[in-house]
Amino acid sequence: MLLATFKLCAGSSYRHMRNMKGLRHQAVLAIGQELNRRALGESTPSAWINQVRRRSSLLGSCLEETFHSDQELAYIQQGEEAMQKALGILTNQEGWKSENQQANGDKVLSKVVPDVGKVFRLEVVVAQPMERLYEELVERMEAMGEWNPNVKEIKVLQKIGKDTVITHELAAEAAGNLVGPRDFVNVRCAKRRGSTCVLAGIATHFGEMPEQKGVIRAEQGPTCMVLHPLAGSPSKTKLTWLLSVDLKGWLPKTIINQVLSQTQMDFAYHLRKRLESNPVSKAQC
After folding, report:
1. Any idea where the START domain is (predicted)?
2. Distance CA 137, CA 165 (A)
């Protein structure tokens, strides 16, 4: 009986059975009942029964926490693939050209990436610990419109697990209204790798958020922010932001380059003001 039950549980790991939540719960329950029956037949349950019982309990909790539909799994995969592609672009140091540099060391670089197009790279140092930036950029994402004038609104449409969200973002007009309002639907994910936090995203389709009247639906390519403590100064954070955007519509390249470069510089300026006005951090990245 126990062997057959384990086969049932193992079968639920196959793709065509993965979403059969009832089957998985039935398998875990059956394992627990069988172990209890065997334990009652002995004066003292054997060590291996106790061990497997503990593991089956953990398995049940894990199945409950990680159950996702095929569509949710696709969103998770899309976010993770975007993160890998964006990090691959950032780690390639060749071909970057200066677009803008400030006296405080903030700088924007750019280059053209095959199959992606022109991307922009912001590099800044912020005099706040990494946990504070994570709190503002991830946990308080929907409040960005309060401090970033280039953003009218960010709304989380769906949360998937602990790392992935679907968002709708409404951008303000730019370049003296030469660039009209744009909106974006993105899948975003946040991961921590050692002392580094990576926040990534890319355009996606979400049926419950169709295109809005009077607003052009733009698309983000693979984009990410990388946060890590500044070497030798852990109370400061190095922030690198890779931006890849197709604004859609007819716009001269000179206008696009100016808008995207300035958007990144504005972001750094307003982020610092936000953090300085409320430096206390409760987040843990």
Report:
1. 67-280
2. 13
Alpha-carbon distances, residue 76 vs 72, 126, 202, 268, 281 (angstroms): 6, 30, 11, 28, 28
pTM comes to: 0.75
How far is Cα of residue 8 from the mean position of the Cα atoms in its chain?
34
Report d(CA 205, CA 210) in Å as an integer.
9
Please report the DSSP string for 226-243 in residue order. EEEEETTEEEEEEEEEEE
Taking only the tens place, the pLDDT of each residue in 44-63 is 444 543 444 444 444 444 44
**E strand residue ranges, the chain:** 97-101, 107-113, 117-126, 151-160, 164-171, 182-193, 196-203, 216-217, 219-220, 223-230, 233-243, 245-246
Beta bridge partners of 121: 109, 242
Q: How many CB atoms lie within 10 A of CB 95?
A: 10
- Measuring CA to CA, which residue among 280, 33, 253, 247 is closest to residue 136? 280
HSE (side-chain half, CA atoms, 13 Å) at 220? 30
Two structure tokens written together for 67: 């159950």
Total number of residues shown for the chain: 285
Cα separation, 15 vs 127, whole angstroms: 47
